[in-house]
Amino acid sequence: MLSNILLDDLDKELERRGLPFVRYADDFAIFAKSQRAAERIMASVSRYLTETLRLVVNQEKSRVVPSKEFEFLGFAFVKSRATINVAAKSLRKFKQRIRQITGRSRGISMDRRLSELRSYIRGWMGYFGLASQLKQFDRLDQWMRRRIRMCYWKQWRRPNRRRDTLIRLGVPRRQAIRHARSRQSYWHMSRTIASGVGLTNAWLAEQGLIRMKTLWAQLAPLRGTA
Question: The whole model's pTM is what?
């Protein structure tokens, strides 16, 4: 709120100069048609902030970049029409958090794990659902399903429990026994036990795993694509 009050003068100054810009609190971007114009604008606006508004400009974060290298509030803008994508850094942070939630060593129930996952994914998609990356969200869905299968496989531990659970889920007995006795890694088995029967996508959805693709579709009005 204080940033908005203090930088209201900056907004009016940029409007007076006819410069296209976007600002969120103390993060803002100004757009220019050329490198030379952008450098001139940056120098001029920096002087205005330091000399008129008596503010300190963060020189490490302030820079002139082409649109394909531009990131703002976790988003990246690509191609000539500035398609909105999730920035690479934001995706890395997302995957890091998912790895924490689905860590095999966490001694929590699957219900709690799935609850944490739902909460985080809903919040994350509520913000990044503006991005036009349906294929990216589909890949993330597949990756998260595999991590959840890995968690189930470790939780079941004993070969007898794995065998009985797979049989109950519709896996043929001989196949269930072979899987249950496997010494392959949890990550390897997380893909094997999903082939057609067993821990299917539908079964995971019944347990409470939500899909990013579904949330993305629900946010179509926000993107103006409804």
Answer: 0.82
